[in-house]
Specification:
Layout (H helix, E strand, L loop, with lengths): L3 H24 L3 E8 L3 E8 L2 E8 L12 E6 L21 E5 L2 E7 H13 L12 H22 L2
Antiparallel strand pairs: 1-2, 1-4, 2-3, 3-6, 5-6
């Protein structure tokens, strides 16, 4: 059992990340949070709203009055009844809650909280999976090939206009 304590620490750290993501996910029903940083050439905005995390990068010159020293936080209530059904928060090409919008001055990326929580749970449990040998059967090869084909098919289907 080498690195047993390291595996425990890894799982505890990712478990804390899972709990924090779950709290943020529930909080998005009533509150909209954002952290941002503005420099003279760019703006980085990470938002938590409407059940998803939104990353906005804008590359443009800002006036000196808009520049912030370090990261800032803002929060405000959201009204569920007035949620916009389309536009920047719900773009037309959104699939399974994921979206990516390229704009002339930057980009906007959307990721639903269910995917972030799932990824964190997988990362938390990863050290506890037994190591597999490099020998596998034909059945394993066929199952893996089928799963890869399904995932690639979903990617192509979601990217289609």
């Amino acid at each position: 059992m080498t690195f047993h304590k390291l595996r425990i620490a890894w799982s505890v750290a990712w478990g804390i990340v899972v709990l924090m993501l779950l709290v943020l996910w529930v909080r998005t029903n009533h509150w909209q949070d954002a952290i941002f940083r503005r420099t003279s050439q760019q703006q980085v905005l990470i938002e938590s709203a409407y059940g998803r995390a939104i990353l906005t990068l804008e590359y443009q010159s800002l006036p000196p009055s808009a520049i912030t020293a370090g990261w800032r936080h803002s929060a405000g209530p959201t009204d569920i009844k007035s949620w916009p059904k389309e536009g920047i928060l719900f773009p037309a090409g959104m699939r399974f809650g994921f979206a990516y919008i390229q704009r002339p001055g930057g980009l906007v990326a959307f990721a639903p909280y269910w995917s972030l929580v799932t990824l964190s749970v997988v990362l938390a449990s990863l050290p506890w999976v037994r190591h597999f040998s490099y020998r596998f059967s034909l059945r394993t090869l066929l199952i893996a090939t089928t799963l890869i084909a399904v995932v690639l098919g979903l990617i192509v289907w979601s990217a289609a206009p």
